[in-house]
UniProtKB/TrEMBL annotation:
Name of the protein: Di/tricarboxylate transporter
Domain RCK C-terminal: 205-289, 294-378
PROSITE patterns reported for this sequence: NA_SULFATE, RCK_C
Localisation per UniProt entry: Membrane
Length: 586
């Protein structure tokens, strides 16, 4: 009994830690597993079981395969043509959402959203439309499409691996499509007809406070070489800069704001500007003006580019001050501005404590792409063009053909999923489509640690009797109403978990409870497992429940309530569709 309350109490603490983001999710879960291991709640075999699970291994291999396709730029180029030929919001929604959801059934949806976010924003700028009308639908379409196949979302693979560990067959390749295709059709139809009216035209509202989501605060240092020292702001021509506005001057311990045209400039003055991401560094071309970074230094002129990136759920930078992260040496980049929840942060950049979803404007050096730790960021845009060579395009088509061939073999039952992905990865390296270092970089190790740790927590819930107790409670509350209510309660609890933590962790935590219910009520475990997989993926009501929602949160200029407004009805539609299908086909 003591073990029961210990596990229950620590699980609640873990959930609160995830909810309030006191540390990175994988750190919280791994620490909880270690605690259970030390206290004897789980054995060493149970604690490490997730690291050898077939579903977890397949997820890691799929990261590599998806990365090889993303590297080629084929998908980006194809959909760029869609955007070029679209003229209205309904036109783009109709042409974009359905193909993207189909693509998400066979590729990780995170790189898809990362690739399309800057495309859609640029298209909106050219057409005079608001990105907020399109980016949430983009995220939702990839989530819905990912439920169609076993590889469409890592959640399906995790549940598949858990079923195999239970001695069951697991999912066949297209088995999730029984529910995945209907909910995708229902969800995309809802988005096509209602997203425009439910989502804000945030572009116009934001322009009153900040010119656009890409407007930031930048700091310029006046050095002794500045030819206008001792002259006024107007004489130095700092009032007629395109897209830039001088907000204040920092002079020793004094802050001059607002700045008059007659204000005299001095050496060592720090000029605080607001401006567009594409123009704020133009000041550095003026003699004696240096763009300052979070390290209080600057990159050499003409040897940098600007990159705008979103801090990921799994970033090693989370909950640390920028100045304490050794940012420049780690990434060959420096932060010049931070944007959070549709607001520019105007405090000293080095003192900003980073949170998931923060948008960083970075000045990057020439070695940035080689040295960057990809798990730290979801990249949104860069001012430099990334032109793909013919060789890269050929390699991209090879990756796509290889994926298609492996899917065919798995679908026909010739080989297992993990075997197919292992062969595909080996062939990519043998034919030099990717290098071993690139393969290592494509894998999101933090995600794998989080998922693998979740298995140990699931074992603790079973060993302590907590899973059994929750299962008994759900059955007691819903069985008198009927089987439909039992399925509904499983869906709702899983969906609640996934809005608080990662979708994979929610699936692993809920799986033992669902299996207990299936055993007690003589339900097909595959049926109830599909409910868990769909409910864990269907995170639409908050920006924190699914990483693609977080990626579009800042760039779309959204507020938390925007996700609630459009996401809750979609949650309800998906829930009713899922539970109804499983109820009649069980």
């Amino acid at each position: 009994m003591l073990e029961f309350y210990f596990v229950l109490f620590t699980t609640i603490l873990m959930l609160l830690g995830l909810l309030f983001e006191i540390e990175r999710p994988e750190v919280i879960l791994a620490s909880t597993v270690i605690l259970y291991l030390v206290t004897g709640v789980i054995s060493p075999v149970e604690a490490t079981k997730g690291f050898s699970n077939e579903g977890v291994l397949t997820i890691g291999l799929l990261f590599i395969l998806a990365g090889s396709i993303q590297k080629s730029g084929i998908v980006d180029g194809a959909f760029h043509q869609f955007l070029r030929n679209s003229s209205t919001s309904k036109h783009i929604l109709g042409k974009l959402l359905f193909p993207i959801s189909f693509l998400s059934a066979f590729m990780n949806n995170t790189p898809i959203v990362i690739a399309f976010t800057p495309m859609i924003r640029k298209w909106c700028e050219e057409k005079g439309l608001s990105p907020s009308k399109f980016l949430i639908p983009l995220s939702y379409a990839t989530i819905l499409g990912g439920t169609i196949t076993i590889i469409g979302t890592s959640t399906n693979l995790v549940v598949h691996g858990l079923l195999i560990d239970e001695g069951l067959d697991g999912f066949s390749f297209f088995q999730p499509a029984i529910v995945g295709i209907p909910i995708t059709i229902v969800g995309l139809t809802y988005l096509f007809f209602f997203s425009s009216s439910l989502l804000p035209d945030r572009r116009l509202a934001v322009m009153n406070k900040v010119e656009a989501i890409r407007e930031y605060t930048g700091e310029i240092l006046i050095t002794k070489d500045f030819p206008y020292i001792g002259q006024s702001v107007e004489q130095a021509r700092l009032r007629s800069l395109k897209g830039l506005y001088l907000v204040s001057i920092l002079r020793e311990q004094e802050q001059i704001a607002p700045v008059s045209n007659l204000t005299k400039l001095k050496e060592h003055d720090r000029l605080l500007f607001t401006g567009d991401i594409t123009t704020i560094t133009e000041l550095q071309n003026k003699k004696g003006l240096n763009l300052q970074t979070s390290q209080g230094s600057h990159f050499p002129k003409n040897h940098h580019r600007l990159v705008e990136a979103v801090v990921s759920h799994y970033s090693s930078l989370l909950h640390k001050k920028i100045k304490d992260t050794n940012f420049r040496s780690r990434h060959n980049a420096a932060v010049i501005a931070v944007h959070r929840k549709n607001q520019r942060l105007k405090t000293k950049i080095g003192d900003i404590v980073l949170k998931p979803g923060d948008i960083l404007l970075m000045v990057t050096g020439t070695e940035f792409n080689k040295n960057v730790i990809q798990n730290d960021f979801y990249f949104i845009t860069s001012t430099s063009k990334n032109i793909k060579t013919k060789s890269q395009l050929i390699q991209g088509w090879f990756s796509i053909a290889l994926l298609g061939f492996m899917i065919l073999l798995v679908s026909l039952g010739f080989i297992q999923m993990v075997t197919a992905m292992s062969i595909a990865t080996m062939l990519l390296i043998i034919f030099k489509v990717i290098t071993p270092p690139e393969a290592k970089a494509f894998i999101q190790w933090n995600v794998l640690l989080l998922v693998a740790s979740s298995f140990g927590i699931g074992a603790a819930l079973i060993n302590s009797g907590v899973a059994n107790a929750i299962a008994d409670l759900l059955i007691h509350l819903t069985e008198p109403i009927g089987m439909f209510a039992v399925f509904l309660s499983v869906y709702l609890l899983t969906n609640l978990f996934t809005e608080m933590m990662s979708n994979n962790a929610a699936a692993v935590l809920m799986f033992p409870i669902a299996i207990e219910i299936a055993d007690k009520m003589k339900i097909d475990p595959i049926s109830i497992s599909i409910i868990v997989a769909i409910a864990a993926s269907a995170s639409f009501a908050t920006p924190i429940g699914y990483q693609t929602n977080l990626i579009v949160y800042g760039p779309g200029g959204y507020q938390f309530k925007d996700f609630l407004k459009i996401g809750i009805p979609l949650n309800i539609l998906v829930m009713i569709t899922t539970v109804t299908i499983v109820y009649f086909l069980r």
